């Protein structure tokens, strides 16, 4: 059996499994929850003063343009990563360079898979907001380079304390929602 054949067989098998799951009623319920959660997050972030590109979402993703808030995606991603929130920096329409993206891309499927509902996404949105407030504060008086910012958030005691406190809150909240497939987590 050739490597190409084995690879194609594996892909076909994976697609068959995915299509089988997609035909089940519980998958439809899950997908509806994914979208409902993303919409709540989009709404809460907009209420907190953030610009959501396209004004909302019809799917599982939200793209937040941080330029009006004086923050960039790379710095926000770093602080949010440090408080145990996983998302991605992302370019937004009008960005001059992908090296300094102005946005954050946030997806709802991972947390929905942990059985979070709309009310939980309101809390997650609040955690993101708190992380962005810390990001903005850490940017004050900081050099223009990302390495300057990274150095500041590990040396400035006030910022370190805020990051540690938010991380503790995020992890205390998240522990209520088990990771699928990780028994005893």
Automatic annotation (TrEMBL):
<protein>
    <recommendedName>
        <fullName>glycine hydroxymethyltransferase</fullName>
        <ecNumber>2.1.2.1</ecNumber>
    </recommendedName>
</protein>
<dbReference type="GO" id="GO:0005634">
    <property type="term" value="C:nucleus"/>
</dbReference>
<dbReference type="InterPro" id="IPR039429">
    <property type="entry name" value="SHMT-like_dom"/>
</dbReference>
<comment type="pathway">
    <text>One-carbon metabolism; tetrahydrofolate interconversion.</text>
</comment>
<dbReference type="GO" id="GO:0006730">
    <property type="term" value="P:one-carbon metabolic process"/>
</dbReference>
<dbReference type="Pfam" id="PF00464">
    <property type="entry name" value="SHMT"/>
</dbReference>
<dbReference type="GO" id="GO:0046653">
    <property type="term" value="P:tetrahydrofolate metabolic process"/>
</dbReference>
<dbReference type="InterPro" id="IPR015424">
    <property type="entry name" value="PyrdxlP-dep_Trfase"/>
</dbReference>
<dbReference type="GO" id="GO:0004372">
    <property type="term" value="F:glycine hydroxymethyltransferase activity"/>
</dbReference>
<keyword id="KW-0663">Pyridoxal phosphate</keyword>
<keyword id="KW-0554">One-carbon metabolism</keyword>
<keyword id="KW-0808">Transferase</keyword>
<feature type="domain" description="Serine hydroxymethyltransferase-like">
    <location>
        <begin position="14"/>
        <end position="128"/>
    </location>
</feature>
<dbReference type="InterPro" id="IPR049943">
    <property type="entry name" value="Ser_HO-MeTrfase-like"/>
</dbReference>
<dbReference type="GO" id="GO:0019264">
    <property type="term" value="P:glycine biosynthetic process from serine"/>
</dbReference>
<dbReference type="GO" id="GO:0005739">
    <property type="term" value="C:mitochondrion"/>
</dbReference>
<comment type="similarity">
    <text>Belongs to the SHMT family.</text>
</comment>
<dbReference type="GO" id="GO:0030170">
    <property type="term" value="F:pyridoxal phosphate binding"/>
</dbReference>
<dbReference type="InterPro" id="IPR015422">
    <property type="entry name" value="PyrdxlP-dep_Trfase_small"/>
</dbReference>
């Amino acid at each position: 059996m050739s490597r190409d054949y084995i690879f194609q067989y594996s892909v076909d098998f994976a697609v068959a499994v995915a299509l089988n799951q997609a035909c089940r009623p519980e998958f439809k319920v899950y997908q509806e929850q994914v979208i409902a959660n993303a919409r709540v997050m989009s709404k809460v972030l907009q209420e907190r003063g953030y610009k959501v590109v396209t004004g909302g979402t019809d799917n599982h993703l939200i793209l937040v343009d941080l330029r009006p808030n004086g923050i960039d995606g790379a710095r926000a991603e770093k602080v949010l990563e440090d408080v145990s929130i996983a998302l991605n920096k992302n370019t937004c329409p009008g960005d001059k360079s992908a090296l300094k993206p102005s946005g954050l891309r946030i997806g709802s499927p991972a947390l929905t898979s942990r059985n979070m509902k709309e009310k939980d996404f309101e809390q997650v949105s609040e955690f993101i907001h708190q992380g962005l407030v810390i990001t903005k504060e850490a940017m004050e008086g900081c050099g223009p380079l990302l390495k300057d910012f990274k150095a500041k958030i590990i040396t400035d005691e006030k910022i370190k304390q805020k990051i540690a406190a938010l991380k503790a809150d995020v992890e205390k909240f998240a522990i209520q929602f088990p990771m699928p497939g990780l028994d005893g987590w």
